[in-house]
Amino acid sequence: MRIIFLGTSAGTPTADRGLPSVLLDIDGEQILLDCGEGTQRQMMKAGASLGKRMKIFVTHMHGDHIFGLPGLIQTMNLINRTHPLEVFGPPGIRDFIERTTIPAMCEPAFELAVHEVAGGEITSGRNYSVIGALGEHSVPNIAYRITVGGSQGRFIPERARELGVPEGPLWGALKAGKQVVLEGGREVKPSDVLGDPVRGVSVVYSGDTRPSEGIIRLAEGADLLIHESTFSEELRERAWAEGHSTARGAAEVATRAGVKRLILTHFSARYPDAALLETEARAVFAGASAARDFESYELKS
Question: Most buried among 85, 168, 200, 263, by the most CB within 10 A?
């Protein structure tokens, strides 16, 4: 998994930082987390294709996270994109796209599907899955966890036969991680017929939120937590009141969740240099760093 920060500012762009957007490249398929204004230009500058297979996940309905959608979708249409595009987000995302994007352009030449979600299991791809959980912001905000690779363990046919599970649909259910009931009422669990699980690589993206128990649970044991840190500690009360986090607050979330690494983003324009925020976070969580536009990272299992 390759991770590229396209925009790391909050609310307004700065000379050095675009509005919120993070791009994941997973085996040739792209996942875009939020889409601040100008995201399509940031993608071009980063050398990312607008024609690849892509899913977009929007955390919440604030302008700095969604105003890039109309321009991005229109640009995709103008370059004759052919791959379908799926957009996931909270209630209101479908109406926003239908009112702002479709009327301002020709009918998309590619398939455009918009899904309104509220957390839980959201979608999956060839080698990844996405789940979500609500954070705590001034409007509904969905944090996302993307897990690449991993499995519940290899299905062992011999064990299934020993337990009397007939080959067919019940085998398929067990492979999918579902418990089955045999004739006579005996239950067989997936763990009874699967080998050791294979751990995947997980990234959690918070969107806008104050420190949240829901996000702590979502991020438990993740390889990377990308967490907003709009303010420094001196503005902790303001951050809490507005549904935002300080850098130290983000580090406290990372510590409680037991993540391996924390990257801070979504910085108020009052901080032209995020060094202060990085220092405050590292006092709590040593593996913290402040993101910069166009920085990239690779995660491997």
Answer: 263
